[in-house]
Amino acid sequence: MIFTPQAALKKSRMDWTLFISILLLLTIGTVAVISSVVVLPHQAKIVRTHFIALPLALIAFSAVWSLNYQVFQDQWKFVYGLTLMSLAAVLLFGVADKGARSWFHLPFFSVQPSEFARIGLILVLANYLDKRIVKIREFSVVLGAFLLALPVFFLLIKQPDFSAILITLPIILIMLFAAGANISHLAIIFGYSFISGLFPVLWTLINMNPELLGNPFVNYFFHLSDFSWNALFFLAGTGLAAYLLWVLSVQLYSKISGVFFAGAAMVISFGFLSGIMVQHQMKEYQQKRLEVFLSPESDPRGAGYNLLQARVAIGSGGILGRGIFSGTQSRLGFVPERHTDFILAVIGEEMGFWGTMLVAGLYVLLLRRIMLTAKLARDRFGYLVGCGIFGMFMVYFFINFGMLLGLIPVAGVPLPLLSYGGSNMVATLTAMGIMQSIYARRYALV
Amino acid sequence: MIDRHISQERLNYLWILAYAAALVFLLRLINLQVLMASHYREIADKNRTQIIAQVAPRGRIFTSDDIAVATNKPSFSLIYFPGQLKTNSETDALASGLARQLALPYEALRNTLFKSARMGTPMRLAENISSKNMLSLSELKSIYPGVDIIVEARRFYPFGAYLSHLIGYIGKMDPREWSQRGKDKNYSMDSRVGKTGLEKMYETELKGLDGGIYLEVDSRGRLSRRLESREWASGADIYLTINSKAQMAAEEGLAASATGKGAVVALDPRSGAVLALVSMPDYDPNIFVAYQEDRDQEKLKNLPEFNVALQGTYPPASPFKIITSAALLETGKVSVDETFNCPGYYDAGSRKFKCWEKKGHGKMDFLHGLAHSCDVYYYNAALRVGPLNIEKKARQFRLGLPTGISLPDEKSGNVFGPSQRAAKKSYWFIGDTLNLAIGQGETLVTPIQTALVIAAVANGGIFHRPYYVNKIVNREGVALYRGRVEELSRLNFKDSTWDLLRQGLRQVVDEGTGQAAKTSGIDVYGKTGTAQNPQGKDHAWFVAYAALPGQPAEVAVSVLVEHGEHGASAAAPIAKMVIEALFKNKLPSKAYMAPAPSVKLGTAVPAGLAPEAGKV
């Protein structure tokens, strides 16, 4: 089918392909969730919550669909305020689970506001970028976008909900990219985040292999994390090195601007400082996850065990799978978090290659529909919102599949529409509702 | 949307990125779920199944007269599979029922039951239950589900140290053995394997196929359900050529001798089949069956694994005179009737060589010289025959060569003579000739080599490779292996040489030094010997063969009693006991060889478990 505006004219206000894909994924997810929890002692509660969340999510989908999405742009202050308030409220009134204060307990279920905050942030950012699209190639706009997101990140760190940050940060980059931001500005942001992530990774690596400390350079580097005078010397050294390089480049009549050197020094310095902050903020289980990333199969019973068992589960499914309700890896508890983050392992084991292929295919189809809908949007705001939601799904898809297939480390990220988790499901279908709303109000129907 | 401020190009890039990632995932999925599926399936199955191994009974070992010398003993254990008893009162009832039956403390049983239920692991309630208790327990089994009786096959050697040097013993694998056997799924870390002797040599045949109860467990090792039981298949039985009575007589005789140390080898001269093989000191292989590292370390360290019969080398002494005689008769340089005078010594000029009889034997011809083992006669004869001829004959009698019996670390002994000296670029003296003639000096032989020498005399010069496995039969009754007669070499001596040698050896027993071996109704031919030992008391030798009158010889025996001093008194009676056991079924005093009812495992009782403490 060629998706042209002419063809779109004849089409309904409902994107049936998207809707049916969503329903299919929800069905597969429901079967997998039930299959994986049926042997658990508290299975009744999980199944009940799942079936409460399903209609709620569909209601949210329909409600947002019927709502003109442009209202979110008009009322962006309200959306932003609600987002920040819900995140602040959960810190005050929420309950802690697994070391993170991210839940509101309600009579029948719990709500995780960070799931909704992500959608809120996408809407607010879309509005921000829409307003400043003329100046998008200026760095101030990029910085402004991050300043807008900063309170959200601050509140997420306070919980702390690192996996939410892990999902949200790339979404902002993707939205800026889609809006047409200067690639070099994005590179600065990316470099900064990369360095602030790289330093803790290197420190953890040294921590895991203490014999490396014998090397004086490594030893010096390791002690940078203490934030003593050494760290200040390092900062000064970075600045000096950048200055000397600039002088050298001038002597060589090179055309490289001095801003480049200053920028690089700034990126390294700020990345380093944030790295120290991240290092000191990391909780023990997060440290553990980082260690697994660095040597996943070193200790099969220890940290790498989960990754390995998930891969065994998927692999043992073979082409046809072991049959629904018959996966031994997941049912006997070898796969952890089987109904949430590791749901793909259950699908892979019980439904086999065809199951995983179907899920991956539906995800690609979903992404394609989101992309096409964004392109059809009647205004720039709709387009930018579509890009943000596209980015969100892409990040989920990359991280969860990559993790389950052993390509990237365990990050505790669910697979939307499949994993158990009411808040995530409602939030995801809200996002889908927004996409439907954009589709229904596409310019061709004006 | 048409907007001059924004290009949709970048969303296309993102879409291409997502699409590419999907392709990577697809390739990875094909790798995991299609190409490597069986590998991961295997890991998954290994994850979830726990096997309670039922060690298959090892193949039994029988003597030629069907007496089991290595067998298996069933050892019954009571095991409890949790999850089938629900209420506390039921558990209490089971505990009290078991306590009554097993005469075990109620509290301890109850605790074990609850612990087992709490942890969800099958547990062993009692071990080594007597078969009397077992019958009433099998009733209990039908009343209370979850209780099961299992049997473990334990190696058992009914006669203790009997034949231990041939049978060997079993034990836990050391790391090197584990690296060899570990790949074989039939072996687990605590499997017992043969460490020496037959147990080691025929490990593959004896092992059998282990059975097992397959359990499905969850990630914490808790029992989720029983999958299946696999029956074991016992190993192949080995039938030896050993004659239990001859072996018995030899062991009894050697044990009762002056020092109780030495070796006895009895062969069938017609085939080379080993009829008895004794080496003392010996050991009881049963101690290793229930071997515990901390407890039995000392025993293992001092284990007398040295097999005197094929690893001990001694001067052959007078039995060597058989070879000297053969040289004498074959060369014809000394006529049979020619006499030499024995004054009790031989004057070799620089030194006087004594005869063992200090008074002297007087005039000696060949037959008397052999019968009375007169050293002086052989000194004179050897000088006439020449040392080279004697050395040649010693080599023809295969001294200095291992017999090739399939037992590890056999020694070859040593032959000395002029050619060997020449090879070493050393001199030969007249005294060497005299020492060579009477089997002293540098000649060294093992008891099994002398047995081969005397067997060759009995059968007219044929050397067979000694063998002791008659056949190996698997449980379907198919012979996997049959022992076969293998001729090593043959001596082409004149008939008169054999006749005269035999005549002389007959006289040794009838009227000479070997009269202690004389027995009525059987023709015994033998030669005594006393090997000089500078370190202590002399070693006693006796080699003999025996036949019914007019029949071919049926047994050749070689007896060595370490520090037994005189072959005539220490060694000859043992040979006589062996011969009488074979020909007259006469057993020495303690007849402990009543064939024990050999227990057949694997058919009557279906299940058995490997013995491991607590958690199985």
Let me know the average pLDDT of chain B. Answer: 80
Under CATH, the homologous superfamily of the largest domain in chain B reads DD-peptidase/beta-lactamase superfamily
Shape, per Cα inertia axes of chain A: globular
The radius of gyration of chain B is: 35 Å
- Give the largest interface: A-B, 56 and 41 residues
- At the first level of CATH, the class of the largest domain in chain B is Alpha Beta
Question: What is the rounded distance between the termini of chain A?
Answer: 23 Å
Low-pLDDT runs of chain B: 591-616
Please identify the structural class of chain A as seen in this structure: mainly alpha
- Number of beta strands of chain A: 3
The count of helical stretches of chain A stands at: 18
Which percent band covers the strand fraction of chain A? under 5%
What fold name goes in the CATH topology slot of the largest domain in chain B?
Beta-lactamase
Estimated share of beta-strand residues of chain B: 15-25%
Mean pLDDT of chain A: 85
The count of DSSP E runs of length 2 or more, i.e. the number of strands of chain B, is 23
Strand order of the largest sheet of chain A: 1-2-3
What is the overall number of helices of chain B? 21
Tally of structural domains of chain B: 2
What's the CATH architecture name of the largest domain in chain B? 3-Layer(aba) Sandwich
